From TrEMBL:
CDD domains hit by this protein: QOR2
Record protein name field: Quinone oxidoreductase
Record-linked SMART domains: PKS_ER
Every Enoyl reductase (ER) domain range: 11-324
InterPro entries in UniProt: ADH-like_C, ADH-like_N, ER, GroES-like_sf, NAD(P)-bd_dom_sf, QOR-like
Lineage: Bacteria, Pseudomonadati, Pseudomonadota, Alphaproteobacteria, Rhodospirillales
Keywords carried by this UniProt record: NADP, Oxidoreductase
Length: 326
């Protein structure tokens, strides 16, 4: 029997329940996976709250790492005993568990140099950082990125990766302590979003030009400043809604702000092609294994302390990545 989180209704962190569940044998295209570490992502709170609607009852969590215990018919790219990691969306929901059945397709083989805990802390964040830095916009050395939530799990990876490529990163953070963390991981400058005018500071730091690329995972509360921070014909990337959904965008706004571009990407569309997923994962693993990118795990929780973990991440008190130990 496995222990697994189950949602019978949506709501606050208190709705997360725990049950003993049978796992059984994998069917065609599935594997039975024993988890070693499970990732905590802000998106988990969206499933729990009902912002991302799914049929109930259901599991929770979309990212983990572990060992393949058994493979079903037709599974060829992983074998029993393989170390793997995964991330996804509805197709991987149920990661808050000790053991589970899961489709084999999302599984990524994990190099021996990457510990399970590191993998659980970085697979979603790292692949997100990979497409933001390597795929979404043609940046050149010296270009400027405005990075919101720069001391968060994705932010710290983006900042380090961007610095490796010679980009200038201006990071927004909520506290001086987080500012120090962001600067230590590649941010050239930081802006205290609670006390400073973000758009004005960006213009001051760029001699009035604005940022070539704005990466906004916060949403509602940062949207206006993000629009005002993009350079003429630059790109605003809205890839999260930590403070709530972004307001509607009217086409004339984009012209008035300097013929800017806006996109709302999803990781799933950047890893849907197996070859592209393998390429992005390979780059990520190489950087982490070589120590060029550090994965900062600053919060560790027992799996059944998920309710408290959700309270912490929603309160904005976490720094870097968080994981559950199994």
């Amino acid at each position: 029997m496995a222990i697994a989180a189950r949602l019978h209704k949506t709501g606050g962190p208190e709705v997360i329940g725990w049950e003993e569940v049978p796992v059984g044998a994998p069917g065609p295209g599935q594997v039975r996976l024993r988890h070693a570490a499970v990732g905590l992502n802000f998106a988990d709170t969206y499933f729990r709250s009902g912002l991302y609607p799914v049929p109930l009852p259901c599991g929770l969590g979309v990212e983990a790492a572990g060992v393949v215990e058994e493979v079903g018919e037709g599974v060829a790219h992983v074998r029993k005993g393989d170390r793997v990691t995964y991330t996804g969306f509805v197709n991987t929901l149920g990661a808050y568990s000790t053991e589970r059945l899961i489709p084999a397709a999302p599984l990524i083989k994990l190099p021996d140099a990457i510990p399970f805990e590191t993998a659980a802390a970085m697979t979603m964040r790292g692949l997100t950082a990979a497409y933001l830095v390597r795929r979404i916009w043609p940046l050149a050395a010296g270009d400027t990125i405005l990075l919101h939530a720069a001391a968060g799990g994705v932010g710290l990876i983006v900042a380090q990766w961007a610095a490796l490529l010679g980009y200038r990163v201006i990071g927004t953070v909520s506290t001086e302590e987080k500012a120090a963390v962001a600067r230590a991981h590649g941010c050239t400058e930081t802006i205290l979003s609670r006390t400073e005018d973000v758009a004005r500071r960006v213009r001051e730091l760029t001699d009035g030009r604005g940022a070539d690329l704005v990466l906004d995972s916060i949403g509602k509360s940062t949207f206006a400043a993000s629009l005002d921070s993009v350079r003429r014909r630059g790109l605003l990337v809205l890839f999260g809604t930590a403070s709530g959904p972004t307001p509607p965008i009217e086409a004339p706004q984009l012209a008035m702000k300097g013929s800017i571009y806006v996109t709302r990407p999803a990781l799933a569309d950047y890893i849907a092609d197996p070859a592209e997923k393998a390429a992005l994962a390979g780059e990520l693993f190489d950087h982490v294994a070589a120590g060029r990118i550090r994965i900062e795990i600053n919060q560790r929780y027992a799996l059944q302390d998920a309710s408290q973990a959700h309270r912490d991440i929603e309160a904005g008190t976490t720094v870097g990545s968080s994981v559950f130990y199994v």
